[in-house]
Amino acid sequence: AGSKLREVFDKINNLLSGKPVQTEGQTVSVTQHPQGLEFVCYKLAEKFVRHGEGEVSFHRDSAFPIAVVLSGIWELHPRVGDIFLAHLHKKCPYSVPFYPARKEGTSMEEYQRILGYEVHDSKVEEQDHFLKRMSGMIRLYAAIIQLRWPYGNKQGAHPHGLSYGWRWLAQMLNLEPLADVTAMLLLDFLEVCGNALMKQYGIQFWKTMFFIQKSYIPRIEAVTSSGQMGCLSRLKNFVQKCLQAEEIPLPKGVLTPSFWRT
């Protein structure tokens, strides 16, 4: 509910503003310790990224309520946004976007960690689980860049707005694609913020969609084995439907004005 989201936002904002906040039966304030504010910014940013790889990966629509709160906090407390990006880029290098190469002397285990895989006791997480987590973080990022907290003053620009999404898409299409990962990330990103990018960039956006269809999808196909075609097929269908309709559908779960009256 919109009213519940406002409560969450106010509580986080009050905490970061140095006001006393009630939590779990006790009153806390960042002024209680010299590094209190820095610690809270760090843990809060980390928590938002965890919401992406956990909550959003399982409940895709939850990207929007989480993103709108973070967007508003980022506007008022830029430090949280900076640390959020640092956590996000470390956990999901594809959000840069960047495909890390294996450096000489790096063990396979360490390299898989750098790629974003979770490694516990030398056991690497399964590919499906890894892709699901990356998907959740990209969807959260794609929601953040297009959303603003509706109760802010709106005087300045969005602290990390759509121009960053446009840049992400351009950089992504300049990278050599990876099997599995690239098709999934592009589909997630376009599903969540394709509509907003279309409205903002018009003809330039459609040129990019045409490039994806004619040039980039065949490049993904060239590195994809027959057992990894699922996501690529979905990306192909999505791009084709959008180009035919000359329209990108609004993402599922987007927050409508009526949501804020709940």
TrEMBL record:
Pfam families, per database record: GLE1
Keyword Zinc: no
Record-level Gene Ontology MF annotations: inositol hexakisphosphate binding; phospholipid binding; translation initiation factor binding
Name of the protein in its database record: mRNA export factor GLE1
Gene: Gle1
Any GO CC annotation of this UniProt entry: cytoplasm
Family label: Belongs to the GLE1 family.
Gene3D superfamilies assigned to the protein according to its UniProt record, in alphabetical order: GLE1-like
Keywords: Coiled coil, Cytoplasm, mRNA transport, Nuclear pore complex, Nucleus, Protein transport, Translocation, Transport
Purpose of the protein: Required for the export of mRNAs containing poly(A) tails from the nucleus into the cytoplasm. May be involved in the terminal step of the mRNA transport through the nuclear pore complex (NPC).
InterPro entries per UniProt: GLE1 (IPR012476), GLE1-like_sf (IPR038506)
Gene Ontology BP annotations: poly(A)+ mRNA export from nucleus; protein transport
Highest taxon of source: Eukaryota
UniProt-annotated location(s): Cytoplasm; Nucleus, Nuclear pore complex
